Amino acid sequence: MTNDMSDTFLYTTTLDPRAKPLIDELIYEYDSRYGNYFNSEGAAAELTRYPPEAFAPPHGNFLLLIRNGETIGGGAFKHYDDRTAEFKRIWTRSDLRRQGLARKVLVELEAQAARQGYSRIYLTTGFRQPEAVGLYLNYGYTALFDTAADPEIYKSLPFEKDITHLAAPALESEPRLKVAGANL
């Protein structure tokens, strides 16, 4: 069971020491699932492929999900194109899975991407991560590949989602009605 009262999001950088559990466990998980399938240096090379600035405002962001002072999840996004944020590194601690934490991270990342002006999300996951595929399909993401085919033929599985509905409504420059006597 999740302890929602103590779960908080912390917007920070990949260099924050509190990000180390996320990064260490991602390296372990990716290496155990893929070995050097994608890169002879393994997951560490993938996780250091982008500089910390790629996940920093105004074009990106990096968040951790913290419970009782411990990092239990997280994720990030970076600029993909003018309207699209690319989600990366969505993770929850392995001993706390199946509690809705990844969904919680996903929803928060979508909201933050919208606050930063994005209207579309793009992401990829690996072909040996059926849990991630299920998460994205269950939360409104469109698979950009044939879900009936063997995922290994694609290696990297891309998804997209329109998030225009999350954008803040544009403020009108002139109010349509003025209240009589109001000083607007």
What does this structure look like?
The protein has 184 residues and is an alpha+beta fold. 24% of the residues lie in helices and 27% in strands. It has 4 helices and 7 strands; from the N terminus they run βααβββαβαββ. It has a 7-stranded mixed beta sheet with strand order 1-2-3-4-5-7-6, with helices on both faces. It is globular. Mean pLDDT is 85; it is low at 171-176.
What order do the strands of the largest sheet run in, or round the barrel if closed? 1-2-3-4-5-7-6
Characterize the largest beta sheet: strand count, sense, and whether it forms a barrel.
7 strands, mixed
Tally of extended strands? 7
Number of helices: 4
Overall mean pLDDT: 85
The rounded distance between the terminal residues' Cα atoms is 50 Å
Low-pLDDT parts are: 171-176
Q: What is the 3D shape?
A: globular
Order of helices and strands: EHHEEEHEHEE
Helix and strand composition category: alpha+beta
Radius of gyration: 19 Å
The percent range for strand residues is 25-35%
Summarize the amount of helix as a percent range: 10-25%
Helix/strand layout:
Elements: E1 7-12, H1 20-34, H2 43-47, E2 61-67, E3 70-81, E4 84-92, H3 101-115, E5 120-126, H4 130-138, E6 142-143, E7 156-162
Parallel strand pairs: 4-5
Antiparallel strand pairs: 1-2, 2-3, 3-4, 5-7, 6-7
